Amino acid sequence: MKNSITAQLRKTRKISYLAVAFVVFAAGLPLLHPGQAHAGQIQYRSIQMSDSSPSNGTFTSGVGSGVGVTYKVSFKAVTNASSMVIDFCQEDPIIGDTCSAPTGMSVTSAAIDPTNTGDITSSGWALTTSNAPNPRLKLAQGSGNQITAGTQENFKITGITNPSGINAATKGSFFARIYTYYSNDWKDSAGVKTYTNATSAANDGHLDYGGIALSVDSVINITARVQETLTFCVSGNDPNNWTTTGDCGDSAVTAPINGLTNTNLILGHGSPTAVLEPGIIDYANIWTQLSTNATNGAVINMHTNIPCGGLSADYQPGPPATGTCSIPAINGGAATGPTQMASGTAAFGVAINKFTPTTQAGPAAVGTLTPTTPYYDAAHYAFTGNVPDTTNTYFGMDNTTATGFDAGRTTVGPPFSGQSSYNGAVTGLFGSTVLYATGPISRVDARYTFAATPSITTPAGIYTANLSLIATGTF
Amino acid sequence: MFVWKQTFKTAGFLVLLLTLVPAIALAAQSQSNNYQVNEVFFGSGGELNACSTSFCSKQSAGELVAGNTASSNFQAQGGFNTDRQPFIEFTVSNTNIDLGKLSTSSTKTATANFTIKAYLSHGYTIVNASDPPVNGNYTMQAITSAPTASSPGTEQFGINLVSNTSPITFGADKTYTPDSTFASGQVAPDYSNHDMYVYRKDDTIAYSTASSSYTNYTISYIFNISSVTPGGTYELHHVLVATATY
């Protein structure tokens, strides 16, 4: 009896071994199928978008619009291949599943990026596109290299329009399905099976396959405002003496000089009353400081009330305006550039340049002001401190250039940037441009040196002119 | 004869038993044609698609492990309710912010949030795709070198993804949902310094190196202007691009 039981157990064990062997064999059968052994899942696969915004947003171009987006496709194939398809689907990345178009997505303007290097280039591969029944990119090898097994392929497709909304079900996700093929016309090695559409792709003879998830998402919009600023001041005090704040808020800016408003300049010499004298050039300085955050810079214009641009002893504004101009603008009010002020010839002019104090308080200046041609000649601008060498410092007073705000312009805007050639007449409606900046500036000083001399025939009198300096920013 | 029958019954039972086991696993997960077996389970029960006419559910019982495990080259999802579908979920909140008027004497700050989950992936990256704030043709100066502290009076735009105490207390460190067992997102090194800010277009600001559940990030923005920062309205349309590698 014992021997009989032992024999039965042995038989049972043998049959069990056979059963196990059968199951293992049966389970391994599919792996031996010749049609499937080479297919695989592409690895390290991704699609990076240059813009993940939905395409129905506020913006119609550029980053944030979801339009004209570049998709960078990356993957490592298992098998060499000569064509591929990328299907974009709303539902999922599973091969053979239903694939409907992500709403609003379009690939019909897509193209292979001409900057691509590697196997898939615009010269070596061809791209055909379709939006129906779902967005689809079909790439086929031409003169370029195959997709190489084991090589990380990277290529960019431009001109894609993202889905137009954030799908509620997938929370903005949409999917790509990539398949590769043996031939360059999306067929298997036998030339029998071929790609038809996404839902039948599971049995279309493709080589490798991979699914990718992508996502569109909201743009973070942040708005901030920088208030437009322009601060401009005129002072008869040297900015070296602006020792408190060093800017237009410094008390020295408006501090009287000899009990008088410091912007009331007196040209002359002698005491107790300063006078002009033939053969002698008298001068006086004023300074300005300009700060502005105007994007396109600013100009400083000078406007006089004396019609000749010079000094008058009997001017009456009228109307009608009357008076003589016995000390006229230098060089006949020409705009050609500063000229030497000759002894014995009555003239009134000004030399203007940016000014850099050595001891001004507060932060340093940022940016620069550039003097215009009629008022500054680098070769003839000679100072010792604030004292001009009147022989080598030339003066100007433009009273001939066409007047008016738009003088000298042939096009609209940018109105001031780089407009060094614009110089309206000092008697024009908006005066003559004497300095300009092409961008924002801060705490930039300038010095204006007014000079005058009479001739021996200049009538006696008190000669005056009211000059207004006007700063204008273009934001 | 009896012995032979008994032996046959025993063998038949073993065959049936051995063939039933893979049938359970493949019923829900096997992939036709390619014969993929992406998921197997060991445990007393579970079903991914238990459906009535109206509802479906995922069920599990006797689950031994759950979550992601990975080496440098491979990874696996543990647990019965794993999904075979690669997935990325990326949501951005607090997407419209008005900072009002900027000042040369103080810093304006703002925060925005985003959350990402990437499943069956080798990780993800979040990339800055936008230029710094723009005012017409002018682009605000961003901190593009090393992360830098806020400096009022100096034109600066920068961000980080951590909590801060300077120039004010704002921002937050990343958090995980449900916890770090399931989520593994990280802040890129240049954007992980408290009270230090930087902004470079095309920088990766956050990432994970494996499948990850929800990581919740807070972006902290700073805006500083100088006396020559051009006046006008500055707009930042901050586009974040999430890319997962599968």
Question: Would you give an account of this structure?
Answer:
With 475 residues, chain A is mostly beta strands. Chain A contains one helix and 21 strands. Chain A has one helix at residues 2-28; strands at residues 40-41, 43-49, 69-76, 83-89, 111-112, 125-130, 136-141, 152-160, 173-181, 208-215, 220-226, 230-235, 282-292, 298-304, 347-355, 370-371, 383-384, 387-388, 432-437, 441-453, 467-473. In chain A, the strands form five sheets. Chain A has a six-stranded mixed sheet, with no helix packed on it. Chain A has a four-stranded antiparallel sheet with strand order 2-3-8-5, with no helix packed on it. A four-stranded antiparallel sheet of chain A has the order 12-13-20-15, with no helix packed on it. The relative contact order of chain A is 0.12. Chain B has 246 residues and is mainly beta. Chain B folds into two domains: 2-83, no CATH class; 88-244, Sandwich (Immunoglobulin-like). Chain B is 11% helix and 39% strand. In chain B, strands 5, 7, 11, 12 and 15 form a five-stranded antiparallel sheet that branches. A four-stranded antiparallel sheet of chain B has the order 13-14-8-17, with no helix packed on it. In chain B, a hairpin with a 4-residue loop joins strand 1 and strand 2. The model of chain B is unreliable at 14-49 and 58-66 (pLDDT under 50). The interface between A and B is large, with 79 and 78 residues. Strand 11 of chain A pairs antiparallel with strand 16 of chain B, so a sheet runs across the interface.
Biggest sheet statistics of chain A: 6 strands, mixed
Give the name of the CATH architecture of the largest domain in chain B: Sandwich
The proportion of strand residues of chain B reads 35-45%
Question: Per CATH, what is the topology of the largest domain in chain B?
Answer: Immunoglobulin-like
Instruction: Give the overall shape of chain B.
Output: elongated
Global mean pLDDT of chain A:
88
- In angstroms, what separates the terminal alpha carbons of chain B? 59 Å
> What's the number of domains of chain B?
2
Radius of gyration of chain B: 27 Å
Proportion in helices of chain B: 10-25%
Spell out the helices and strands of chain B N to C. HEEEEEEEEEEEEEEEEE
Sketch the topology of chain A as an H/E string, one letter per element: HEEEEEEEEEEEEEEEEEEEEE
**Strand adjacency order, main sheet of chain A:** 1-10-9-4-7-6
State the distance separating the first and last CA atoms of chain A.
111 Å
Mean pLDDT of chain B: 78
Number of helices of chain A: 1
According to DSSP, the number of beta strands of chain A is 21
Strand-pairing-aware structural class of chain A: mainly beta
Q: How many strand elements of chain B? A: 17
